[in-house]
Amino acid sequence: MTRTVDDIMELAPVIPVLVIERVEDAGPIARALVAGGLTALEVTMRTPVALEVMREMAKVPGAIVGAGTVLNPWQLDQALEAGAQFIVSPGLSEPLGKAVIASGIAFLPGIATAGDIMRGMDMGLERFKFFPAETSGGLPALKALAAPFHTVRFCPTGGIKPETAAAWLAEPAVKCVGGSWIVPKGPVDPAKIEELARMAASIAR
What is the per-residue pLDDT for 166? Predict the structure, then answer.
């Protein structure tokens, strides 16, 4: 089943942003997140095992696994081969944008300025990751960008915490947020991850 970017953004209020160093952690983390109500899982391509982690997480019933930190068409091809169901990038370049659009996969490219949004809209895109959210001006900056681009919807990511997520999600232009707090660094504790996922899944939007 091919999911649209809106399908992905509407699955839950928070998309966990995952930096996973060990393949053996993939299954337990994915099962805990899905059990807690978070099914869209962004596996960042920041570690040597990211592609293998995606393959393992995709085996977990209910998990919809995407690739994050995709920087170029070559990495896109790798992510697609690993079974990614959506693509997230920190920025938007023309080669990557054209390649992802041609592939037909759901795409959430990163933007931080009005110029970024306009370049994305020129490619036919209207769903973006606002990144890095807090250091790019935070919620006031996003509200200012949302006003002239009233058809655009965002997934702010970068510096968002459990105590600030609700304020971001209350903004009508925000469909979901990305968060790394749901899987704390250190030894994997599935019960704790499930608890944090459940709290994140219950945030109103």
Answer: 98
Residues serving a catalytic function are 42, 129
User: d(Cα 23, Cα 88) in Å, to the nearest integer?
Assistant: 21
What's the pTM value of the predicted model, to 2 decimals? 0.97
Give residue 118's region: left, alpha or beta (phi > 0; psi -120 to 50). alpha
Which of 23, 77, 64, 81 minimizes the C-alpha distance to 47? 23
Task: Identify the CA nearest to 86 among candidates 46, 131, 39, 47.
Answer: 39
Query: What residues contact residue 140 under an 8 Å CB cut-off, 6+ apart?
Result: none
